[in-house]
Design brief:
Helix content: 10-25%
Number of strands: 15
Strand order of the largest sheet: 3-4-5-6-7-8-9-10-12-13-14-15
CATH topology of one domain: Porin
Shape: rod-shaped
CATH class of one domain: Mainly Beta
CATH architecture of one domain: Beta Barrel
Strand content: 35-45%
Amino acid sequence: MNAPRPCALATAFVLSLLPIVCHAQSSGSTGMDMPMDMPMPSAKPPAKPRPATVPKPASGKAHSVTVKPAVTAPAKATAPADHAMDAMPMDHAMGTMPAGHDMGSMPMPSAAPADHAAMEPMPMGSSAPRTPVPAPTDADRAAAFPPVAMHPMHDNDVHSFVQLDRLEGWSADPGAGVTWDGKAWFGTDLNRLWLRSEGERRDGHTQDADVEALYGRSVATWWDVVAGWRHDQGSGASQDFAAIGVMGKTPYKFDVAATAYVGQGGQTAARLDGEYELLLTNRLILQPRIELNLFGRDDPRRGIGSGLSTMETGLRLRYEITRHFAPYIGLVQERSFGRTATFHRAAGEDATDTRLVAGFHFWF
């Protein structure tokens, strides 16, 4: 038997290894590592959905409904991510990483801690950070709140006020006359010295006049209690009274004064008066006024009867040329009652006297 040649043996050995090598290449291709920078083939676009068919109705006709795919807005362009991610191929069609890559072994960008001071809004027109408000110091507090002693309260100041409410004249039978009514005070808001006077002169003779000096103490808003002395003089003998009363402004801005008097020899008296100022315009003012005088007993020497002695009512219209000075005209009626009316008739006078008046009102 002849021995095989070496060339034939080598050829037979190579041919026997070919199936094994081909099998190994076909089975290990999926586990082979791919280079990181190898470009991936683009994924095929998703297939269009087929129209859905509604089940056949009872009529036997089929109705097909085409469902259109939802149109999504294109994603906004974002800032480029870390370049370490650019070399990693992604399977965009399936949204997965290629086989053989581990996310845990990939270097991820570290997140820096948030700087809240840098996130504060910046002032307009400036890139510098906002300066914080400094804490107040003792010097700042002293400048903001000066000592109270440097600014005294107004109720401790001394003031004064003079008002001649009525200075008017009239012409009547048997002659002309002049009437006045005024008041003044001097002091603080709590304690004041009040001076009041009113009277009437006719044909050059003083018919009736009185002067009062009173101490006033504020007891409530717009209200004072007054006490002091009153002196009367006129056609009869003069007389002095001790006086006490109240004066002020009611809630509806009626000026009211009520005073009681105790005189020499046990004579008593009381006076009530009130007035109201109705603003027709800012400068035209209508003033109604009433005054009542009462006495405890008759005084024939002075022509005074007990009870309600006299009542005077008036309506005056004034125009304020300035806030301190105003001329006026008015209508006044004075009426006597009881024994006082009897004394007036006995002296040849009427019990009721009505007259037109004109005068001035001023204060300072």
